[in-house]
Each structure stands twice: as structure tokens, then as C-alpha cells.
TrEMBL record:
SUPFAM superfamilies: PLP-dependent transferases (SSF53383). InterPro entries: Aromatic_deC, PyrdxlP-dep_de-COase, PyrdxlP-dep_Trfase, PyrdxlP-dep_Trfase_major, PyrdxlP-dep_Trfase_small. It comes from Denitromonas halophila. GO terms for molecular function: carboxy-lyase activity; pyridoxal phosphate binding; transaminase activity. Keywords: Aminotransferase, Decarboxylase, Lyase, Pyridoxal phosphate, Transferase. This is Aspartate aminotransferase family protein. GO terms for biological process: amino acid metabolic process; carboxylic acid metabolic process. Its cofactor is pyridoxal 5'-phosphate. Pfam families: Pyridoxal_deC (PF00282).
Length: 457
């Protein structure tokens, strides 16, 4: 037997003990999350010699890398609209790793059936009609990619071209209209071959990030043919919403594919208080909702929803004699960019079954109340300026005097909170979003104290 085989055999025999050690480490991390410094990033120590095997690797990881990781799963990490992981989602995620399904919907597993059930739970919680089929993908970028790829195929149908077969050259230039498309949409346009220059920015309402629907109608009227319109349900800086119902109504006058990027704010529809903000999204052609944000499941997870399953399959169909080729909900091999897929639906199924709409409405409303409270403190502080009303779970501010980036560095250096830089209406600013299920008022008071502690006298 080779040395490697000896090591593997020993690890197999020690699997139970190894998992107990890892479980103990995980429990320690979870217990410390509320108090750990939020920022990480310290460089790893130099590699160390070890004798091989899982325990040696675990010890090396704990020594070299663990101390420098960010506590981004904690309740005071306000960067990138990052959620944590609910207890039920964590259970599902651990099981997903142990079960290790290739969740393509093939006949050897009921993973596809569970994913379909999860998508139904998801639609019901958000008030979306059954006309939307969906699939779990790795994140909002890939969900936007799927929606825009399907929209690209729809443009081909309008022009009498099968883009998936003939390629973009047969389609010609494409126009994508949006007031504030997220950078992941721009990235997707590059990956899809449509090009970043295909995005044409339309005017936003004064002092808002939401599209001016009149300006959008004018841009559609001036377009040489059918377009893709990307509408926002929750912008990154101010959590602003396009008027989705008014935009969808333009379909009576113009031909366009409506893609709604609701990466984090789509989950707000779980709350009766905030669902009206998303009125009209049920008329979209495709929708993006991220799950590792406000649904609070572990990375990586998002849902790509569409009304046009056959078009989606034309893009992502995989021809091989040994694969199921039928196009139907649940045969995810034919509907997503990946041929091999982690069992991402399982953590989402666990958390949706465990907490339901009422649980998520509570998370949404609590986080929004917390953001509004922080916004009130900022607005009342003469050394700071709140740059936009707090509309949902995010906030954006800047110092009255001095550099926003320097202030952000000082705030993040406290280890009490992590936020990110941005530019709003041409001004450098600081932004954050509260998306964690376990964030408390005590956390908010710690954050505000940290901000105050680094303000100039």
C-alpha cells in the first residue's frame, strides 16, 4: 500500500473524530461571531511542514489562515449586502456537503424534486405566480447572466435568428437599457458577447437612482428594434426601486425583454409592509434573487427565474447521448450554465421550511428598522450627512468635512463594523446594508458608537 493510501485509510478510520473536531471548531466560531472583529485580511503565516492527512491540514489551516478571515457571517458585517446563515440553512448546507449530490435533476436522485419544491416555496413567499420557472445558480451575477442570456435568445426570435446556434454575428448589435444596472449585469453583458457598450444608460429621477420612466419610453421609441430593459428592485447605494409596474406597462407600446434585478431586495416581498415596492415584477420576463444575501443561506446561492423555459433551454441545452435531453422543469442540466451543480437548494429548503414567510418578514422588517434607526443617528450628527433617505435596509452617508475614504478606513479599523466605499450622485461616500438575521439593537448601538469614536472633534 502506498503512503498516500495509508494516509487516506487512517483518515477514513478517524473520520468520526475529525468531524467532531471540526464541529467543535464550528461551534466556537459561531459562539464568537457576535464579538469577533468584523474585518479580517491579515496575511497568512509561512507554510509549515506537516506529516500529511486531514488533522495536519486542519491544524495548518487553524494556524495560518483562520485568524485572517473576516467575520462576514456575523451580525455587524454591513458590506456587500451580506447575510449570515440561519441555523436551519447551516444544517442544510452541512448535509449538502455530506450527501454531495450532483443536482442536475437526473433520474438517479430526487434532488431535482426537492429543488422544484424549494422554488415553489420561494415563489409563494415572494408572491410570484407559478408561471415562473427557476433554477439555483451560484449568485446574482450568474442569475443575471441566465436572465440576460435568455433575453438574448428572445431577441434572436424577434429577428428570426437562433442565436444559440448561429451566434451573435447573426443577430447584430443589441441595445440594453437601464438607469442603474448593477456591475454584475455589465459583467454579464461582457461574458455574453453583447459587450459592455451595449448598455445605454437612461436618466434617473432627480435625486434618485430609480429610472425616469418617461426617459425610458423615449429611449425605447428611439431604439432601432427590440431591446432588453434591466430594471432594479433595490439599488446598492440607496435601496431604490424602479417603478416596475410602469415599466412593464410600456410593453403595450414597445417590444422588449424585461429583466428585473432584485438580487437582495426581492426577499423584501416576504413582508406585507415592503411587498408593494415590488409591484409589477410579476410581469417581468426574468428575475434575479440572491439567496446568500437576505435569505441568509451560506454562499454560494441565488435563483434565476424566467417565464420562458423553452428559450432558456435553447441557450443551455447540453447534447450528449448519455444525458437526459428533455426540456422540463427539474432537468437543470439543460437549464443552467453548469453541467455539475452543488445541491444548493437544500439549505434554502431547510430555512424556508423552518421559518416560512412570517419568519422572513420578521427578518426584513427588523433589519429595515435597524437601518432607519442608524440613518436617524447619522442625520442628527452635525459632522455627518445622510446622502439619501433610508428606504429599506441600506444607508449611505459622508462626512461634512474631510475625505469619506479616510473616515471609512478609521471606522472599519475599529473592528466593530465593516462597510464599503461608493460614489453617490458624484460624491464619495460610505455605504452599508443590514441583512443578517441575528443583528440586534445592541449591535446597532455598537456600530454607532464605533462611528462616533473616529469622528473628528
Amino acid at each position: 500500500m502506498s503512503k498516500l493510501s495509508d494516509i487516506l485509510s487512517n483518515d477514513l478510520a478517524q473520520t468520526d473524530a475529525l468531524l467532531r473536531e471540526v464541529c467543535a471548531q464550528a461551534k466556537q466560531i459561531l459562539a464568537q461571531l457576535p464579538t469577533l472583529p468584523v474585518g479580517g485580511g491579515s496575511p497568512p503565516a509561512a507554510p509549515i511542514a506537516h506529516s500529511g492527512g486531514a488533522r495536519a491540514a486542519l491544524n495548518e489551516y487553524l494556524t495560518r489562515f483562520s485568524p485572517g478571515l473576516a467575520a462576514s457571517a456575523g451580525p455587524r458585517y454591513f458590506g456587500f449586502v451580506t447575510g449570515g446563515a440561519t441555523p436551519a440553512a447551516l444544517v442544510g448546507d452541512w448535509l449538502a456537503s455530506v450527501i454531495d449530490q450532483n443536482a442536475t435533476g437526473s433520474a438517479d436522485s430526487n434532488a431535482g424534486a426537492l429543488e422544484l419544491e424549494t422554488l415553489a416555496l420561494f415563489r409563494d413567499m415572494l408572491g410570484l405566480p407559478d408561471a415562473f420557472n427557476g433554477a439555483f445558480v451560484s449568485g446574482a451575477t450568474m442569475a443575471n447572466f441566465v436572465g440576460l442570456a435568455t433575453g438574448r435568445q428572445w431577441l434572436g426570435v424577434q429577428a428570426g435568428v437562433d442565436v444559440a446556434e448561429a451566434g451573435l454575428a447573426a443577430l447584430g448589435p443589441v441595445r440594453v437599457l437601464s438607469a442603474g444596472a448593477h456591475s454584475s449585469t455589465v459583467k454579464s453583458l461582457a461574458m455574453l458577447g453583447l459587450g459592455r457598450q451595449s448598455l445605454h444608460r437612461v436618466a434617473a429621477l432627480p435625486g434618485r437612482e430609480a429610472a425616469d420612466v418617461v426617459a425610458l419610453a423615449e429611449a425605447l421609441a428611439a431604439a432601432p428594434g427590440p431591446c432588453i430593459v434591466v430594471a432594479n428592485a433595490g439599488t446598492v447605494n440607496t435601496c431604490d426601486f424602479d417603478d416596475l409596474a410602469a415599466i412593464a406597462a410600456l410593453k403595450d407600446r414597445f417590444d422588449f425583454w424585461l429583466h428585473v434585478d432584485a438580487a437582495f431586495a426581492g426577499i423584501a416581498a416576504a413582508s406585507d409592509r415592503y411587498r408593494p415596492r415590488l409591484a409589477g415584477w410579476e410581469m417581468a420576463d426574468s428575475i434575479t434573487v440572491d439567496c446568500h444575501k437576505w435569505l441568509n443561506v451560506p454562499y454560494d446561492s441565488a435563483v434565476a427565474l424566467t417565464r420562458h423555459l423553452p428559450l432558456q433551454a435553447e441557450v443551455f441545452r447540453n447534447h450528449a447521448a448519455y444525458l437526459r435531453g428533455e426540456v422540463e422543469p427539474g432537468n437543470f442540466l439543460q437549464l443552467t450554465p453548469e453541467n455539475s451543480r452543488r445541491f444548493r437548494a437544500l439549505p434554502a429548503w431547510f430555512t424556508l421550511r423552518a421559518y416560512g414567510q412570517a419568519g422572513y418578514a420578521g427578518i426584513v422588517e427588523r433589519n429595515c428598522d435597524q437601518a432607519r434607526w442608524l440613518g436617524e443617528q447619522i442625520a442628527a450628527e452635525p459632522r455627518l450627512r445622510l446622502l439619501a433617505p433610508v428606504m429599506l435596509n441600506g444607508f449611505c452617508f459622508a462626512p461634512v468635512e474631510g475625505d469619506a475614504a479616510a473616515l471609512l478606513d478609521r471606522i472599519n479599523a475599529t473592528g466593530e463594523v465593516f462597510m464599503t466605499p461608493t460614489v453617490l450622485f458624484g460624491q464619495s461616500a460610505i455605504r452599508g446594508a443590514i441583512s443578517h438575521w441575528a443583528t440586534t439593537q445592541a449591535d446597532m448601538e455598537r456600530v454607532w458608537a464605533a462611528i462616533q469614536s473616529v469622528l473628528p472633534d
